[in-house]
Structures are given as structure tokens and as C-alpha cells.
């Protein structure tokens, strides 16, 4: 925007103020200060750059300096007028920023929860760089604390991504205490970098990445997948810092028919409750055994047991359940039941 594009109305009355006030050195009246603040607010709402506005005020000061009078009076008058103009400008800018932040928050809520008319949602999203005709992927990061937009963690992650990728149609926000990144589905490098930076900024938090999904409803779907993946990781005890929903599709499939999963867990693993000490020690043994790829020595180390003690526990499982963890067919049934037990929280949760 050039100086010539600044309308004269934004300097309305400035020459008269210089002429009248500078001649005597008096301070500006309340009405004059109010008029400067109002014009500053108009300039902010119109989107004029502050540098251009200052240049125009300085040019007007030079052009209308009185032929007689103390130059210090002129400078003092200009200082008061420009300061009042700046006050109005800054106040209006803060209001605009708050309005933009509120609009962005409302848009994010509608996108993540799949609310609103799709046509209007697409138009609103365009203002913030999202093109809902494209597919998007949502990544969600959680840490030991709850975060919001004002948190240093949120600002650091956003600053890093914007500095690295610039305008890539990325939207960063927070929701329910978690960091959220919405990015075009084809920009895997953005989500990978978000995961890396969020992991470091949250002091070793966990990040889940949903699957790419098309349209406005796709953003809500991808977000739900990412959040569900975080919840799944907690229930299953996963240690990986970054999890992708696409790699864990078997778990939602298992959980979809809850009654069938309950029947499988109770029928297959229910007899373990007859063991001395209950089902928990033997279930933990199966967890470790399957998690280590059925390598007894490694599983024993994970449980701080001797291999002999671990082998004894596996034999107790075979005796009580009638299923042998070493047999390929029985192993499949047992492992599926163990996954179900983790999903359902059994045996600590009553089924």
C-alpha cells in the first residue's frame, strides 16, 4: 500500500491542529485528542500499515509547519497528535486480533466437531488458509500438562512450524488441553516436524496422527481418530511417542462389537482368576510374552523373572485355560483375548 492510497480523511484536521496549537505551544484539547484516536481506529480497521501512516503524518507536519513560531512547539504538538492517533490505532488493532482469535476458535470447534453448514464452513476456513475441498490430516499431542493458546509450549511449537514452513495452509491450535495441528494430507513433512517439536516441547509427550480424510467432515473424523489413538495408547500401555491411527486399525475393529469381545475375554482368560494371586500376574506374563514376540528370555527380563519362573507361569496359563501360548493356533486366540482385556481394562474393571 503506497502513501498515495492513504485517504485524506485520516489526516482530517491535522493541519489545523498544527497551525493553532503550535503557534502558542498549548496542549491539544480533549476534543482534538479524541478526534485523533478515532481516526487512528479507522486506519486500523481499514488495514493501513503503521509505517505508511507515520510517514504521512511526518510529511503533513513538514508541509504545514507555520512560518513563525517556536519549532519546539510544532514538534510537541505533532507528538501529542501522533501519540493519540497511535493509541486509537493500537486499541482497534487489539480488538481486531481478539475478534480474529474468536472467529478462529469458533471455526476450529466447528471443524473438529463436524458442525455447521459445509458451504459456509468452507468460506470461513478460507480466511485461515484451509481449503476444505482438499484432504487434511490432524495430529494431536498431549503432555503432562494441559495447554492453551497462551501457553509457552503452544507458542514455541507454532513459531517453529511457521518459521520452517511459512504459509503452508497449516492451522495450529489447542483443544481440551492438547496441541492440535491440521495440515493438508500430502504434507507429511509438516506433521512429522510437528510430532518432533511437540514431543520435545511437551517434555516427552505422546503424539497421535489420524488418517487423511477429505472435506470438512474429514477433519472431524481425522481428529477423532487421533484422540481415540491417544486414549488407546494409554489403555494398551504403548510406549511409542508417535502413533498413527492407520497402523492401529485392528483395535477399533476388535472394540466395535463389545459384547463379542467381552465373551472372548471371559471365556478364554476367565479361568485365570482361579490362580493363586488372581488373574493379574498371569495376564501380565502374557502381556510381556506377546509384546516381546514370544521370546521367553526377553519377556522374563521385562518382568524381572527368571526364565524358569516365566515358563512355569506360561504352563499355569495352559493348565487353567486349556490354551497353549506356544501353539500357533492357541496363541492367536490368547493374544486376541489379551488385547481385548487391555481394551476393556479387565480384570480390574468388572465386565
From TrEMBL:
Residues annotated as transmembrane: none
User: What positions does the domain CdaR GGDEF-like occupy?
Assistant: 115-232
PucR C-terminal helix-turn-helix domain ranges (all copies): 282-338
> Which InterPro entries has this protein been placed in?
CdaR-like_regulators, CdaR_GGDEF, PucR_C-HTH_dom, PucR_C-HTH_sf
Spell out the family assignment given in the record's similarity comment.
Belongs to the CdaR family.
Protein name, entry field: Helix-turn-helix domain-containing protein
To which species is this protein native? Streptomyces durmitorensis
Amino acid at each position: 500500500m503506497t502513501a498515495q492510497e492513504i485517504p485524506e480523511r485520516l489526516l482530517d484536521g491535522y493541519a489545523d491542529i498544527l497551525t493553532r496549537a503550535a503557534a502558542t505551544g498549548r496542549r491539544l484539547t480533549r476534543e482534538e485528542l479524541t478526534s485523533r484516536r478515532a481516526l487512528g481506529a479507522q486506519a486500523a480497521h481499514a488495514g493501513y500499515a503503521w509505517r505508511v501512516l507515520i510517514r504521512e503524518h511526518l510529511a503533513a507536519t513538514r508541509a504545514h509547519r507555520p512560518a513563525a513560531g517556536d519549532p519546539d512547539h510544532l514538534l510537541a504538538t505533532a507528538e501529542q497528535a501522533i501519540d493519540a492517533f497511535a493509541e486509537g490505532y493500537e486499541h482497534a488493532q487489539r480488538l481486531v486480533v481478539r475478534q480474529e482469535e474468536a472467529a478462529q476458535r469458533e471455526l476450529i470447534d466447528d471443524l473438529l466437531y463436524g458442525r455447521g453448514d459445509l458451504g459456509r464452513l468452507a468460506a470461513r476456513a478460507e480466511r485461515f488458509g484451509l481449503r476444505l475441498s482438499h484432504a487434511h490430516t490432524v495430529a494431536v499431542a498431549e503432555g503432562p500438562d494441559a495447554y492453551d493458546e497462551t501457553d509457552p509450549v503452544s507458542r514455541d511449537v507454532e513459531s517453529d512450524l511457521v518459521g520452517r514452513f511459512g504459509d503452508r495452509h497449516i492451522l495450529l491450535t489447542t483443544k481440551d488441553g492438547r496441541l492440535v495441528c491440521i495440515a493438508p494430507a500430502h504434507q507429511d513433512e509438516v506433521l512429522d516436524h510437528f510430532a518432533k517439536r511437540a514431543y520435545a516441547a511437551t517434555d516427552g509427550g505422546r503424539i497421535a496422527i489420524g488418517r487423511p480424510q477429505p472435506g470438512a467432515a474429514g477433519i472431524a473424523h481425522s481428529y477423532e481418530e487421533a484422540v481415540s489413538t491417544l486414549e488407546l495408547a494409554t489403555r494398551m500401555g504403548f510406549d511409542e511417542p508417535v502413533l498413527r491411527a492407520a497402523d492401529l486399525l485392528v483395535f477399533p475393529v476388535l472394540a466395535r462389537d463389545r459384547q463379542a469381545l467381552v465373551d472372548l475375554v471371559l471365556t478364554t482368560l476367565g479361568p485365570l482368576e482361579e490362580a493363586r494371586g488372581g488373574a493379574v500376574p498371569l495376564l501380565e506374563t502374557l502381556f510381556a510374552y506377546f509384546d516381546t514376540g514370544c521370546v521367553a528370555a526377553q519377556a522374563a527380563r521385562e518382568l524381572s523373572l527368571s526364565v524358569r519362573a516365566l515358563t512355569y507361569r506360561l504352563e499355569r496359563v495352559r493348565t487353567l485355560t486349556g490354551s497353549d501360548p506356544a501353539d500357533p493356533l492357541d496363541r492367536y486366540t490368547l493374544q486376541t483375548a489379551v488385547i481385548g482385556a487391555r481394551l476393556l481394562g479387565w480384570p480390574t474393571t468388572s465386565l
